[in-house]
Amino acid sequence: MIVILTALGVEQDAVLEHLVDIKVYEHDKGTLFDVGTIAGHPGHRVVVGLTGAGTTTAAALTERARAEFAPAAMIFVGIAGGLRDKLAIGDVVVATKVYSYQGGRSEDDAFLVRPRSWELSHRLDQLARRLCRGNGWHSLLPKHASTASPQVYFEPIAVGDVVLNSSRSELARRIHASYNDAIAVEMEGSGFAHAAALADQVPAMVVRGISDHADGMKASADRAGGQSIAARNAAAFAIALAASLDPEPNPTASTPTSLAPTLPTIKNKVIARDHAKVDKQIGVQFNWGQR
């Protein structure tokens, strides 16, 4: 089973387009997940969750999904602002490193960055790079797609709880100066990556489609459909990656479980003399409250 998390409805919808037999699963704390199977791949089940914007909720729901479903891998899928001229709307970025850019120390005359970062799972990195050979994952894009050949970049990204919509602001300058290898910026990946790293190193990946260029023109890019294109392409790549993982051995089989405990075999013989009663055998006491 693979868990795919998204922050926005447009991102979630793009992932669900690739699933069939979808059922709603309600966590006991109220979180709703969609559980389905990748179309054409009956052995590949996917859980899709919606976190909302921000690193803290992304971290909390990443851990909730991991604890509930024990997935083989987790992928955060969504949109991002591009920080390089080479990036076209709809291009996909696989985050090789996720920077949390807001950590630091504020002095009178400077902000001293104290970066944290998380790196991409090696296993997922290897599989994702193989998907790019011949762009076979493009088969999951609609034939009428306006961006027929989105490119995939394996580069770092920068993450913080800020919508960056300027290439000249103080924050934009700080990211350029201190995280100058980052080619995209978004708002959830560091919380997701941090939670995944704390969860016994569950394989995790952040996949983002470029929806704008973080240059003051976000509203125009959104009106032109940048978010839909970016979400669609990122979802297609993530689903192709999920389908490339080993399928479940028998996803439809169910293993019956017994609620009654199994008592150990009694091998010794207890003999009571002089009309004594035996109601408990030493060494064979079972606590029914423990399983």
Secondary-structure topology with pairs:
Elements: E1 2-6, H1 9-16, E2 19-26, E3 32-38, E4 45-50, H2 55-69, E5 73-82, E6 92-100, E7 104-106, E8 111-113, E9 116-119, H3 122-131, E10 152-159, H4 170-178, E11 184-186, H5 189-198, E12 204-212, H6 218-223, H7 226-244
Parallel strand pairs: 1-4, 1-5, 5-12, 6-10, 10-11
Antiparallel strand pairs: 2-3, 3-4, 5-11, 6-9, 6-12, 7-8
Helix pairs in contact: 1-7, 2-5, 3-7
Structure, briefly:
The protein has 291 residues and is α/β, with parallel strands linked by helices. The protein has helices at residues 9-16, 55-69, 122-131, 170-178, 189-198, 218-223, 226-244, and strands at 2-6, 19-26, 32-38, 45-50, 73-82, 92-100, 104-106, 111-113, 116-119, 152-159, 184-186, 204-212.
What is the share of helical residues?
25-40%
Helix/strand order, N-terminal first = EHEEEHEEEEEHEHEHEHH
Rounded to the nearest angstrom, the distance between the terminal CA atoms is 26 Å
Unreliably modeled segments: 252-271, 280-291
Helix and strand composition category:
alpha/beta
**How many helical stretches?**
7
Mean pLDDT: 87
Strand line-up in the sheet with most strands:
5-11-10-6-12
General shape? globular
Largest sheet entry: 5 strands, mixed, barrel
Percentage beta strand:
25-35%
Global Rg: 25 Å
Overall number of strands: 12
